[in-house]
Design brief:
single chain, alpha/beta, Rossmann fold, five-stranded parallel beta sheet, two-stranded antiparallel sheet
Length: about 260
């Protein structure tokens, strides 16, 4: 009974961090509605579709399903937001699922665990990661977080600190780290948007870890590659997302942990 109460409390704590955004008039709206309210007009000079820039969307009701740890495989752990959680997609069609298929064919000693949650922030990921590391004991951790921090205009120093803490925790657990970068429009000013993008480069340099420059590189200006909300990549875009990640990820498989 005590264990059940503790488990329920942990789930409530995780979901509370991603449930909603404070919006106009003190009301709280689901993240998807908040995105539409705050970013009704596209301001990005590069003409990227709004949805290409954020990993928001309605918060997930629970952790996505993930296979239990298998001691016969080495684990790649993906910790991300809706861009990695198959938001709006049929199960098995997102880039992480495609990664799992590719790994099973090309690196069969590895298995992929997707611990992504739609709407998650770096703070949420930081709080979840210790339990995930303990449970799955991954050899490689893929961090795809931060876009929702940028959407909400959160402090970049805190975002950087959260990502650094996740990198540190992964290394203490003897896991190698791949950092996935994103871009945001200059709604909070160009200094903020450029500082946001630079956070990933700075962390990669400081920690000497590989970085995917932009997860949506190569199709972010193609509206027909996005879902009807113009916010989340459609199924046809998922292979390109995987192709952006794979060249940076594969060298980590079988490498020595640093």
């Amino acid at each position: 009974m005590i264990q059940n109460r503790q488990a329920a409390r942990r789930i409530r704590d995780d979901l509370a961090q991603i449930q909603c955004l404070d919006c106009e008039g003190g009301r709280k709206l689901p993240l998807l509605a908040a995105i539409r309210s705050r970013f009704h007009l596209l301001l990005l000079g590069l003409c990227l579709p709004l949805g290409a820039l954020f990993a928001g969307g309605a918060a997930a009701a629970a952790f996505p399903s993930a296979a239990p740890p298998n001691p016969t495989f080495r684990t790649i752990l993906v910790v991300g937001d809706s861009l990695s959680a198959e938001y709006g997609l049929a199960r098995g069609t997102g880039w992480v699922s495609l990664l799992s298929d590719r790994v099973s064919q090309q690196e069969p000693q590895y298995s992929v665990v997707n611990a992504s949650i739609s709407g998650d922030t770096t703070s949420g990921g930081r709080s979840r990661l210790p339990r995930l590391l303990q449970k799955y004991r991954p050899e490689v951790v893929v961090l795809e977080l931060g876009a929702n921090d940028g959407l909400r205009g959160l402090d970049l120093a805190q975002m950087r600190d959260n990502l650094q803490a996740m990198i540190d925790a992964s290394r203490v657990a003897h896991a190698r780290v791949l950092l996935i970068g994103m871009r945001i429009p200059p709604n909070y000013g160009r200094d903020y948007s450029e500082g946001f993008f630079d956070c990933y480069a700075q962390l990669a340099r400081a920690n000497r870890i590989p970085r995917v420059t932009f997860l949506l590189d190569g199709f972010a200006d193609r509206l027909d590659w996005f879902q009807a909300d113009h916010m989340h990549p459609a199924e046809r875009a998922q292979p390109s997302m995987l192709d952006n990640v794979w060249p940076k990820l594969r060298p980590l498989l079988g490498a020595s942990a640093s």
